[in-house]
């Protein structure tokens, strides 16, 4: 393979060059110790694995070390968390450790919008890039279809109940559900950033054209079904959770589930193959599980429990990536994913960049598609030191639950040695391990220091605990997160949110649910404009959704929405196909 230089080549060009030396899906299976029947190929280089069969076979094998990858509060450009996950995996390989990783499947929203795919970057990325970025083995498409089938079932039932008599419905063995059109819990799903579909009217036309009401779309990765995929332990568990999914309420306020609509079985049939994780590889040939793809600011933000169970049985070190900063992704990893899985992490890697720390220190605005201000590429110790408070907050969040942190300084080629030294000394003064990693530029060879720090951290004893208890009230859980993790003074609830929480607390089936906060990822607070480590603010919760099947409630804080918008300079403008070779160009 020719020498790959990220300073001279785009990510898709690096991926294209690396793909010439990919291992086949069966060779990847051999690295993990899989039997041939446990590998289900989708072409030569990607596939699914029969997780349940593998776990049954390896039931008595001890687990490897469990490492979560999180970060500080990022700039809108992201700070390379996926890249670090892949780079660390490659670094562990360089020092002779058998390792695996689990990452999330990229959504079409960011892939075609501004952020791009989630394959990593430079010399620390997954291949094949095109398959990874554009659908992979079809899980998101299946979730989108299953979610929309629930809406088809709901809206059709509403139309028939509105238009026909009880006698007509009885002849067709249909029980009247008395659905309240003003109290529908979900909308439609599409895996694009489509702000024009946030609020729509449906059922326009005549009697045969459906029930007319307000509705809207959410991005597919925010669907409860995606959350269910992330936490389901097997197909049976998935089927039971899908059946509990609340789609609306009747006119007396009673929940109406997919089971009530008699659509849960069909939804599970569409999603049946999604329970099996997909398998791809790094450009250095190491195995990576790709399973589930929820955002962290509007969803649970984790790859799947199933993928982690597999990695921990098949490798000595297993990495799992959590979305955005430790206040969002790591918090949900601890209080939701670990609670559901019963697993306990051995350490957590906190990815930090000079760029993000300078922004938190009062640096100029960072906007996708626009050139960085020179403050981010020239040495500026004052900005950097002022922004260190954000990193310290995330370190304390990890330590507060008894997990050993390792700070990874994700090195950019524009960083200065004095800046790196400042971060290193500040972190070491706090008694925390820190490593500089140049994986983007050098691949696994650039991540040796990080890999060695992680191996050492995994040997330390832990005192793992959750941020709140399951039997705490809903308000107590939200307040605990606000004060202990975000650093706020308290929580203000809208009247609507208060009413919903009161009803939830009175329901024995719902009062003990976990909390999956919808909150800005661009600040520790719910205001994306507050950088650093904000103080003197209160969390504003304006609504609460119920994900009964997934096992948590979803408080909506600030102004964030479940459907992102497409920017003025989206990535789809640069994506094309070479009609001579059939290769996709322009992905990153």
Key terms:
588 residues; alpha/beta; Domain 2, N(10)-formyltetrahydrofolate synthetase; single chain
Topology:
Blueprint: H1 11-18, H2 25-32, E1 39-41, E2 47-49, H3 51-57, E3 65-71, H4 81-94, E4 99-103, H5 108-112, E5 120-121, E6 124-127, H6 129-133, H7 139-163, H8 166-171, E7 179-184, E8 188-190, E9 200-202, E10 213-215, E11 217-219, H9 224-231, H10 235-243, E12 246-250, E13 255-257, H11 264-271, E14 278-282, E15 287-290, H12 305-314, E16 317-321, H13 326-341, E17 347-352, H14 354-360, H15 381-400, E18 405-410, H16 417-429, E19 433-437, H17 439-442, H18 448-457, H19 474-486, E20 491-493, H20 495-506, E21 514-515, E22 539-547, E23 552-557, E24 576-577, E25 584-585
Parallel strand pairs: 3-16, 3-17, 4-15, 4-16, 8-11, 17-18, 18-19, 20-22, 21-23
Antiparallel strand pairs: 1-2, 2-14, 5-6, 6-14, 7-12, 9-10, 12-13, 14-15, 22-23, 24-25
Helix pairs in contact: 4-18, 7-11, 10-11, 13-15, 14-15, 15-16
CATH topology assignment of one domain: Domain 2, N(10)-formyltetrahydrofolate synthetase
Using the CA coordinates, give the radius of gyration: 24 Å
DSSP helix fraction: 25-40%
Query: How much beta, percentage-wise?
Result: 15-25%
What profile does the largest beta sheet have?
Answer: 12 strands, mixed
| CATH homology superfamily name of one domain | Domain 2, N(10)-formyltetrahydrofolate synthetase
The count of DSSP E runs of length 2 or more, i.e. the number of strands, is 25
Number of DSSP helices?
Answer: 20
